[in-house]
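Friendly challenge for the regulars: who can give me the structure tokens for this chain first? No prize, just bragging rights.
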Amino acid sequence: MAGASESSSGPLHTPQPAPLPGPTDRVVYAIGDIHGRADLLARLHGMILSDAARRGRRAAVAVHLGDYVDRGRESRAVLDRLTDDPLPGLQTAFLCGNHDAWMRAFLDDPEAGRGWLVNGGRETLASYGIPSVSTDPSLRELRRLRADLGAAMPAAHRDFLDGLQLTWREGDYLFVHAGVRPGVPLARQDPDDLINIRQPFLASQSRFDGALVVHGHTIVNTPQVHDNRIALDTGAYATGRLTALVIDGAEISILQT
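First reply, four minutes later:
Bragging rights claimed.
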């Protein structure tokens, strides 16, 4: 594909024509779903710092696409890293994933934990030293878990979850966790779609108000570049492959653990 290259051992699947040109004023790194894999995140951040150094003194921004917690065993360590200037010299942006939103909702409403616990929340609680509960916890148990998590969670983690953004824009690229609803102007997108949508977004051939959407949320075997979107969730918690897209002018490449 014209304008694309590889910076890792994994293939770059490009079923559609080359994407729109990227921003020319700085390098952009977009990082897919992390899901509690602090080990992979540390490795990928190191790769990003090395890549940025190789490109010289050009300004750079790292956009994390969300789902920092759940499923993997090191959610607390992921948030520790992300709240401690993980990429010195680079601007950082942090988007909200559906798992991050579930965790945040649980801190306000213990009943929100019913769905969260069966979707990776137990692993997140364990990373904070909180033992798992029954498969069908009572409201009393959920309240206790919320209190335990609130006591165990550093204030910086709570502030991090509170400050997550829904979108990030760089030139012709729109970064979002899950995707957008076709036919709806970008300025009027439903926040629930931005962190949860699969269809009809994945099947759409639309250009989404002229933007190329970079997203995670839906697992793919290899990063996929379509004419209107780029998918970066390579299932890191299960596969060991955490992926970052690199956009440098009209060239895109991949970094992967």
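Helices lie at 38-54, 75-82, 98-108, 113-127, 139-152, 155-162, 191-196, 236-239. Residues 1-11 have pLDDT under 50 and may be disordered. Your move, everyone else.
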